Amino acid sequence: MQAQAPITLIVPNDLSYLSLLNAFVEDLAQRASFSPKEILQVQLSAEETFANIVEHDFPDGRLSPVEILWEANALGMTLRFRHKGQPFDPELFPELDRQELEEKLVVQGLGTFLMKQMVDEVQYNNRGYDGQEVVLVKHVATPAEAALPAPPETALPSDEHKASVAEVIPYTVRPLKIEESVEVARLAYHAYSYSYPYEHIYYPDRVKALNAEGTLASFVAVTDDGEILSHAAMVYDPNWPGVAELGVAFTKTTRRGLGCFNRIFEDMVAASRARGDFARFLSGVTSHPYSQKTALRYGMNECALLLSKVPAISFQNIREGTPEREHIMAFFEFDSPRPASPLHAPTHHQEMLGRLYRKLGCEPRFEEARAALSNMPSEIDVSTNPASMVAIIDVERAGRNTVDEIRLTLRRLCISRFETVFLELNLHDPATATHCEAYEEMGFFFSGLMPREDGSDRLILQFLNNQRVNYDAIRVASDFGQELLDYVKQKDRSHALL
Amino acid sequence: MQTTVQDHSGITVLSLAGRLDAVTSPDFERDSASYSRERVVLDLSRLEYVSSAGLRIILALAKQLKTGGGSLSVAGLDGIVKDVFEMSGFDSFLPLYPTIDAALAASAT
Hints:
The structure holds two protein chains of two kinds.
Chain A: E1 7-12, H1 18-31, H2 36-56, E2 65-73, E3 76-83, H3 98-104, H4 110-117, E4 121-126, E5 132-139, H5 144-147, H6 159-165, E6 171-175, H7 181-192, H8 204-213, E7 216-223, E8 228-236, E9 243-251, H9 260-275, E10 279-285, H10 290-297, E11 301-310, E12 326-334, E13 342-343, H11 350-359, E14 365-366, E15 379-385, E16 390-397, H12 402-415, E17 420-426, H13 430-442, E18 445-450, E19 458-464, H14 479-491, H15 493-496
Parallel strand pairs in A: 9-10, 13-14, 16-17
Antiparallel strand pairs in A: 1-2, 2-3, 3-5, 4-5, 4-15, 6-7, 7-8, 8-9, 10-12, 11-12, 15-16, 17-19, 18-19
Helix pairs in contact in A: 1-2, 2-4, 7-8
Chain B: E1 2-8, E2 11-20, H1 25-32, E3 39-50, H2 52-68, E4 71-75, H3 79-88, E5 96-97, H4 100-108
Parallel strand pairs in B: 2-3, 3-4, 4-5
Antiparallel strand pairs in B: 1-2
Helix pairs in contact in B: 1-2
């Protein structure tokens, strides 16, 4: 499946057009290799979405078009429903109460529940003057497990064994060949069992498709005999254009010590520069310091400490592995220094943000905080990852009710038991400077900085839902990493109360 | 969506075939509106698809039968229809049977 231009269906907000929507979904889902059951699941999610729009978003009953865009991609499809019905707050949708259903035969929230159950991801986007958008994402299932081998021997290789293989094994580093995709999935399996947070890597078909599409650029270290020793990749997120995330790195547990990662990273950084990427990013786990050291070696610098970002990762053969959720030290590197642009950072974080920017080779220019708020509606996106129980609230532009919206959204996410909520605030928005303290009163605290190509860098705050972080277990790889860790720890009120 | 009605020794079997969605569920609502005191078995073995609109009509039928002294059971769930029943919690208040014969036997006792 290759990425292609969206295919659009426009129908009136009238349920009698449901059969047309069904035919649209069925035809395109078949072309995208969805199974018959998956097609019904997409149809069900689409019906519930369309019915919600028709029944709830146009209370005056006026006729209005609903635009439905189908986008096929390497992983499956994205279906967008755009309309100009009344604004809604998805956090206020009633939730399915099974107890009430069983005891009183009363049901609420059933449509929304089914809509979410049938796809992998649901997003609600407020598009300002352009109205509302509901986004459904569904991945094609592939029988990855069948392609993977039986579990490996449980015995860990001895240091002697590692030392012997590390002596001399010639290898070369090159981009992945499509037919080697299953070997990459196996490598991930042997290194991390089924715990690596980038799930697509366990699906050989997805590894193939993503590489073909260009959203994943895999590199491997391979011997003359064709044995793949290590894999790492650049991941390109369409929501973060121009940034290559370096990661998805595994080495065969019996082939450590050969320096494969160093050579792969050298090639990847060169490839990223050749592609014209504006920056590179790396997520370093903090239960061991190795990936952080790799980032530092290639000139990257710490920009954020993202607490409880991913579920516990099982590191085969790295004894510092922990069963607790993993904290991530984020690293960043610009290709060339950026011109200073005015930033609206809260006064009390300007010093730390200044240090983060200067580490990245930029001299920030902070504007004085002012109370002026845009009269434009707020632009807030909420994305959730049920697999990792992490939610991200991104505030592109704050409006007058944004603080209340964030409070309500946070409450709903906590009730839904999301472990960690990240709040991304646009440093080009004057409201970021004035609203930050209100967010911190809700329990958010400093995480760091995420630059963007267009200059709309994000101040990252984080909220931990009834979690206490064991800061003593966090491993950092530099003095500046320790400085950032100390700053975050100081701002974490739950820790300060201990 | 098609609805057929059969009587099995005093037990009413409503068989649904096709798709029970927001467009077709009003038809089933009309077809099932008159039942209140009967023992009814819903045969869903030929139902390919059900959405929340269809589940709401089934729920309404269950309520009207409970109020009127009748009963409702469901037979022949499969595929996505079975998934939807189970994940929505409809299996918590509706007796489910793998086959129509099993449902009839249980309803006859």
